Amino acid sequence: MIQALGGFFTYFVILAENGFLPGTLLGIRLAWDDRSKNDLEDSYGQEWTYEQRKVVEFTCHTAFFASIVVVQWADLIICKTRRNSVFQQGMKVTWWFCAFPYSLLIFAYDEVRKLILRRYPGGWVEKGNLL
């Protein structure tokens, strides 16, 4: 329940930061998904095209998922003990860091890939990475 609350909170914060306050979201789905409606007004009078709305919507979906993952980190930690406080029990997180260098490797790899894409547009890297 708390995980869902964290996810929905993030979802609504993103929409509010983009001009769609929670009170205006009720009943907006038909207009939101209408491909021909390119002048949907937000809470501040700004008009949104279909493509712009979908970018915000997909951002909300991604952030919702990421929020669930972050909240699950707490579940991982609290499952360590049944009665003792985590602070009383203590935690050895030695094995948690085994994969950390691989996380850095993924970031480095992707940044190099993007650099090559920018420097050599239309090259073999771009043709092989049609994502």
From TrEMBL:
The chain crosses the membrane at residues 93-109. Keywords: Cell membrane, Membrane, Metal-binding, Transmembrane, Transmembrane helix. The keyword Phosphoprotein does not apply. Gene3D superfamilies: Calcium-transporting ATPase, transmembrane domain. It is a multi-pass membrane protein. InterPro entries: ATPase_P-typ_cation-transptr_C, ATPase_P-typ_TM_dom_sf, Cation_transp_ATPase_P-type. One of its GO terms (cellular component) is sodium:potassium-exchanging ATPase complex. It is found in: Cell membrane. One of its GO terms (biological process) is intracellular sodium ion homeostasis. Residues 2-98 form the Cation-transporting P-type ATPase C-terminal domain. The keyword Nucleotide-binding does not apply. GO terms for molecular function: metal ion binding; P-type sodium:potassium-exchanging transporter activity. This is Cation-transporting P-type ATPase C-terminal domain-containing protein. The lineage of its organism: Eukaryota, Metazoa, Chordata, Craniata, Vertebrata.
